[in-house]
Design a protein that fits this description.
There is one protein chain. By secondary structure, the protein is an alpha/beta fold. 32% of the residues lie in helices and 24% in strands. It has 6 helices and 7 strands; from the N terminus they run βαβαββααβββαα. Strands 1, 2, 3, 4, 5, 6 and 7 form a 7-stranded mixed β-sheet that branches. It is globular, with a radius of gyration of 17 Å. The structure holds inosine 5'-triphosphate. Inosine 5'-triphosphate binds next to β3 and α4.
Length: 199
């Protein structure tokens, strides 16, 4: 399994994580490396839909095998929000512009203020287009939302997310510790299994 795959993401943290997770099993090529500098549209109302939209957008323009990752933080007491809106949670609620991780986390903490049920999960869906065929793989990690942000590693909501059975947030763990148990790890392994059985 050494074929190169283009990762349709504008998020450099995701590329770093995927390269660490896949190691020598697959070579990951960034959008920059294929000369793609545009923002990829993400207009679906589901995580699956956005993952497919991003992968199809790159596949159609660059005619290469590729995959995309769409991830949402689903909080039980908020009916699964921010979910598919995780990247723009604050801005769609009138708090600033675009993707602002600290504004997103501040809003989440505010919404959970006084709420005892802190259960949440990260859900990643990877959509891959290989040889013109589409594949979907999912990875979930259950956990809970901390009462204050903790830790400086990772990105996005990592300072707030404590995986089940752990005491540290993802942002307090080393990257290897996060990558060993994360939603992205699980989705990546599921994708590799699918690709192995669909040569
Ligand atoms: P691309 O769409 O270009 O891949 P993105 O950062 O917009 O990059 P998503 O839409 O999948 O990616 O991300 C939704 C939000 O969830 C966004 O705010 C991320 O920072 C956050 N997020 C995704 N994966 C995460 C992880 O492993 N840990 C913490 N937050 C994460």
């Amino acid at each position: 399994m050494q074929e190169k795959l283009v990762f349709a993401t504008n998020n450099a943290h995701k590329i770093t994580e995927l390269r660490a997770i896949l190691g020598k099993r697959r070579q990951i090529v960034s959008l920059e490396e294929i000369g793609c500098r545009e923002e990829i549209p993400e207009t679906s109302d589901t995580i699956e839909g956005n993952a497919l939209q991003k992968a199809r957008w790159v596949s159609q323009r660059f005619h290469c095998d590729c995959f995309a990752d769409d991830t949402g933080l689903e909080v039980e007491a908020l009916g699964g929000q921010p979910g598919v809106m995780s990247a723009r949670y604050a801005s769609i609620n009138g708090r600033g512009e675009g993707h602002d991780a600290s504004a997103n986390s501040a809003l989440l903490l505010e919404k959970l203020d006084g709420i005892e049920n802190r259960k949440a999960r990260f859900r990643t869906v990877i959509a891959a287009i290989i040889g013109g065929k589409e594949f979907l793989a999912e990875g979930i990690v259950n956990g809970s939302i901390a009462t204050t942000p903790r830790g400086t590693d990772g990105f996005g909501y990592d300072p707030l997310f404590i995986p089940e059975g752990q005491s540290l947030t993802f942002a307090e763990m080393t990257s290897d510790e996060k990558n060993a148990i994360s939603h992205r790890r699980r989705a990546s392994e599921a994708l590799l299994k699918i690709l192995e059985t669909n040569p």
